[in-house]
Structure formats: C-alpha cells, structure tokens
Amino acid sequence: MSPAENGGEPGTRFVAEIREQPAALRRLLEHDAEIARIAQEMRDRDARLVRLVGHGSSDNAASYGVYAFGLLPNWTAMRDSITLTVHYGKPLDMTGSTVIGLSQSGRTPDVVEYVKGARTAGAFTVAVTNDPGSELALAADAFIPLAAEPELAVAATKTYVNTLAALALLAGHVAERGGELAEGIGRAADLMESGIPGLERSTAKLALSFSYTGRMFVIGRGVEFATAREIALKLLETCRIAAEPLTATDLAHGPVAALDHLFPVWAIASSDGTLATVQEAATRIREMGANLVASGTAAELIKGAAFTVPVPMPEPALLSPLLSVVPGQLFASALARARGLDPDAPHGLAKVTLAS
Amino acid sequence: MSPAENGGEPGTRFVAEIREQPAALRRLLEHDAEIARIAQEMRDRDARLVRLVGHGSSDNAASYGVYAFGLLPNWTAMRDSITLTVHYGKPLDMTGSTVIGLSQSGRTPDVVEYVKGARTAGAFTVAVTNDPGSELALAADAFIPLAAEPELAVAATKTYVNTLAALALLAGHVAERGGELAEGIGRAADLMESGIPGLERSTAKLALSFSYTGRMFVIGRGVEFATAREIALKLLETCRIAAEPLTATDLAHGPVAALDHLFPVWAIASSDGTLATVQEAATRIREMGANLVASGTAAELIKGAAFTVPVPMPEPALLSPLLSVVPGQLFASALARARGLDPDAPHGLAKVTLAS
Question: Same domain for B146 and B207?
Fold first, then answer.
C-alpha cells in the first residue's frame, strides 16, 4: 500500500509501530502464565538443548535467545541450521532438545518445515509468532503469542522487541525467575515509553549528518550482538545503507581495515563483561579515522565518539537489548525520510517473505 | 613489513599463498592418523555435541564445521558463544561436548581462555592451529596441526582452506568414512592445482569491472555459507569493499531492498538441496537491477549472471568449499592491486590479532 492509500506521510506506520512498543510489551506480559507453563514442560522433559530458528529479525532475536538461556537457566542455546534438516534432509536426533521456531507471520516456509521435522525427531517444539492461526503455531507442540497486534510497516519493530521479551520471559521461567523477568520487562516498557520522545529528537538531528552515508558497521557483543544485527538490518532495508553487523572482536579480525572517514560505525556498549571489547574496538575505529556513534546503556563510557545516544539501564541488565534497539529504529526512520525513502514500504520487499 | 622490505610487489605473498594451497592440503593429509585417533576419542567419550569457536576466518571455517559434522556423523555442531563463558563468566556443563578451538596463530586470547574453561567443565577439547607450540595447542586435550607452513600475508588463505579440510577429515573419521574423505581432499587438491592458472586469468579480467565498487553482498547457503563469509572478509580486508555475507534466504528478508546497479552480488551455487534458494535469490537480485557474479560448482545453473566463475565438483560434494573459495581469494587479490592496495599488509591490521 502506498502512503497515499494508507492516508499518511512516508514512514507513518514505521514510526507509529516504534512508539507502540511499550504497549506491545505490556500485552505480551498478559500471557505470562502460558509462558510459565511452557517453561515447566521444558523442565519436565529436561529438553535443555535449545535450538532457535528464524530468518531476518527473528534470527536476530535468536542471537539474543542464546544469551537469555545461557545467562538465566544456564542452558546451551544455539541458532540451529535450517538447511541441514530441511534442504539436506539430514534427520538429527532431537531428543532432549527444545526447538523454538520464530516467525512474525508464522508463514516462513522453511521454519515451518524445520519445526515439523524436529517434532517428529523428538524435540519439544515451541512456536513464537504474531499469528495464533498460522501454520507455524499449528505445527508446534506449544505456542507463545507475540501479542504485538498487526504490524503493517514492512520492517519489523514491535514484533522484534516482543520476540526478545518472550525469549527472556521463557528463559526466566525455566530458571524459576519468571516473576523477576516479568517485572523487569514491565519496567523496561515504562523506561522505553518515557525515553522515546527525547530519542526521536536526538536521532532526527543525528540523521542529518548521515544523509550521504553508503556504508556502516554496527558493532556489539554478547547480549547486544542481537541489537547490532537488528539495527544493521533496519538500515539496510529502510535506508539502503550497506550496514554490516559485527561483534566488537570480529571487527579487529579484518573488517577494521575497510574503515575511513566515509565509513562510520554505530557501537552498542553495555556495562557488563563485554565493555572492554567494545572500548578496544572504539579505539581502533578512531585510529582509522572513522566517525563513531556510541549507543547502549554504557554509551557514555565510549571515548571519542562523535555522537552519543544513551539509553537507561533496565533491571536485570540482560534486558538492555529491549531498550538499546530503539535509537537505531528511530535513526533508521529519520534517515530514511531524510533520504526520500519510505520506510513503511521499501522497494523490493513484501511484509511476508515466502522465499524458501 | 612493507613490499620493499619483503623484496616483492604488493600482494606477492597473498597470491603465492593462494597458489600454495594444494601443497598445504597434501601436507595436512600426512596427519591423517593423528586426526583419526582424535575422532576415535570423540566416539569413545560419546562427546557428540560439537562446539566450535574462533574469530575471523577461523569462525568462517566453523560455519563449515556445522555441516561437516551434521552431514557426516550426523552430530549436532554449533558455533558456540565465547562471550557467555569468557566475558560473562557463566560456567556451562560441557560433559558430552567436544570443543574445537580454531586459531591460525593459536594465540587468540578469548579462544584460548574458552578452551581452558571448557576443559575444566568436562568437554573433550581439540585445538586446530598452525602453531604446534602455541598456547592454544598446549591448552587443549588434543591438537590437530594445520601443517600449512608459515602464512605471511595478513589475510588468511591456506590456513583457512586447511581448517576446512581438517574439520571435514575429523568429521569423516567420526563417521568411519575417514579414508573416503582423505582421498576426496587429495583429489580436491589436484583439481585446485589444475584450476588456479585459469582462475587467475578470469578473475583478473573480472576485477577490472569492479574497480570502483564500494558495496557488495556475498551469498551462499548450507556448506557454501562459510565460503560466502570468507570471500566477504577477503574483500573487506584487502579491497576495502563493504562486503556483507548473507544466506540466500536471509537476503530476501530485508537486505535485498538495498540493491541497485552499483551494489553487485557474488553468489556461490552448489548442485545440492540449496540450489533452488540461490536461484530464487538470483531472480530477486536481477529484479533490483544489481549485477550478479555466479560462482561455485553450479555457477552455470544461475541464470542472468553478468559474470560466471565456475569451479569443478569434488567428491564427496561437501568438499566443494575447498574449491569455491579460490575464485574469491584470487578476485580479492587482483582487485586489491587494481585499486592500488597491498593485500599482503592491509592498513590497520596485524597478522596476529590479540584483541580480546
């Protein structure tokens, strides 16, 4: 649908859905009891190898899931290969595994097929989707509704944030810390709501400096690597910037050589065990003459940044990706409009991706 | 060391080491018996969850390891989070796991630390490195020498290819198919040797068309996703192109929107269950007006490519990444020189990366 058809300016839906995120998080919390029951079943079955599958923003959220399960119940979680079972037809033994299929639409073909195969192979399968009637929801043993309400902009925002929260809450219940996580998500929604107006103003100013940027890196590590991946994807799809996500450490293993003053870097810093790696990367970035945007809960601890876009620290700290993605979403929204693009409906994309 | 100090033209070492790869593969095969013993120990211990860790080219090779273990012994392998155990200090229970630490130098600090912790946590630990006296080799229970001889160009080539082969051979022995894999690697070395002169000529011509390219995607799927990652890294570090690797399917989930006639795509196609996904991506790429380079064993099956750089099919087919990376290495070598850059010593990089 063109802006004329939806009756608004370009990007109206995208920014509206970013603003809806706090409300979407609160709606997810209404499903806390269902999520607790699924966590109990994971414990009862001792299905403690967690296999996460998805594409695009869902796969970015899966990067967060690795840390949610690793940090809360201390279980091993992985972004599993879809290709191995679906395209190469290799039936793995999945007893002892929980499979979490992530798809906003619930219609991503190879995710649905993977989940069906995993269920046959003995996994406990959980669908996380925004559509309770979707094929994915019906294929799995259990179902977590994202409760984000319809997402109309092509680029995902509130479904991404709710996928993060659903994974944190599920992992929290597995660790018998569900109450603490639910409270934390509620407080994060409040922090997000009070922070969005200020972030809209600061990212709009920031976007002016990036009107002609063609290439960027977005770096983070640990829980914030998911944020780096998601911000890079927003910049690619809405602003047509060649934005590549990298861990702070992988930046030093080669890619740093490509940087110059026309190749800026967005860095997400958290006050946790990964801070030193991001600070070290920031030094290398400055040495290459590249402009640096420091974001995240520890943005102020990155020296020499040209721009700083901090977010408040939630409690527990592993919820910081709920907040740190928002400046990136708003920056993409402002920058797309500054470049004359419509972030609601990027050229060449449809909302539901049915590519295999 | 500058070209003047090493007595050669820019890129002399890089191209010499690409040409040495067949000989390096044959040297690795001299260690077949040691690799077979390590595979036997993995079986004896039933350590069938394989955790691969590394950065840069080593992490790219880990992407291949997921398929080598998935396709040969049908074991689950994953690129594990280093951050979780090293930076967040979360001690996972690693009984039943084989840990494979990958580092050409054997000195990558967090890989060494991860391996030490994993050994304490009950994993069977294997070091794969080019330096038998390195800290990584000493920290692990077992050690596979890459036998690539010293690699002097900063951008890895022969150590990458030998890491792939070491993982294939190890997975082959775990599956009791070691002899078949060793023979296959030997034949792949012969195919590579006879193919390099022709590929040097064709990629030199190809490079002329890309002198001013600033952004690229490199796509592959399944076994060839490792190749896509490694070629993108070579282009980043030696040619300063913002080259991002994507699976053929993830391209459709957003990034395709950034493409235009100044944003070409290098696609690696194999004649396996993933071919249709790469063909479908190629259609989307052409629709966006982007130039396409088709490479890999099934390059000729990609329609509408502006350039085609095929490689022969090895046997078994899962060894194709040994060959399909070579056109990308040679293209990076030719393009770097066409752009006046020295691929032996990219600005801002050192051979051994000690960043944490």
Answer: no
Statement: residue A1 has pLDDT above 80: no
Are both A222 and A278 inside the same structural domain? yes
Which residues face B127 on adjacent strands?
B101, B143
Using CB atoms, which residue from B255, B272, B355 is nearest to A236?
Answer: B255
A257/B349 CB distance under 8 A: yes
Nearest to A83 by CA among B226, B176, B56: B226
**Residue range B172-192: mean pLDDT, rounded:** 98
Q: Do A86 and A153 fall within a single domain?
A: yes
Identify the CA nearest to A176 among candidates A95, A78, A75: A75
B225 & B158 share domain: no
Residue of B nearest to A288 (CA): B348
Domain count, chain B: 2
Q: Cβ–Cβ of B110/A249 closer than 8 Å?
A: yes
pTM: 0.96
- Whether A356 is in a domain gets the answer no
pLDDT tens, residue by residue, B28-47: 999 999 999 999 999 999 99
Residues 185-204 of A with CB under 8 A from B: none
- Token pair listed for A280: 């070290």
What are the tens digits of pLDDT across the range A216-225? 999 999 999 9
Give just the sign of the alpha carbon dihedral A202, A205, A211, A217. Answer: negative
| Cα–Cα distances in angstroms (integers) from residue B101 to residues A256, B30, B144, B277, in the given order | 23, 21, 10, 31
Same domain, A50 and A29: yes
Determine what percent of chain B is predicted with pLDDT higher than 70. Answer: 97
Assess whether B251 and B151 both reside in one domain: no
Look up the domain containing B245 and give its range: 197-338
Residues A170 and A202 in one domain: no
Using DSSP bridges, classify how beta strands B76-79 and B49-53 pair: parallel, antiparallel or unpaired: parallel
Q: A240 CB near a chain B CB, below 8 Å? A: yes
Same-domain status, A24 and A148: yes
Radius of gyration of chain A (CA): 19
> Complex ipTM above 0.90?
yes
Contact A356 B241 (CB under 8 A): no
CATH code (residue B244): 3.40.50.10490
Within-domain flag for B354? no
Nearest-Cα residue of chain A relative to residue B318: A88
Inter-chain Cβ pairs, chain A and chain B, closer than 8 A: 207
CA distance A21 to chain B (A): 21
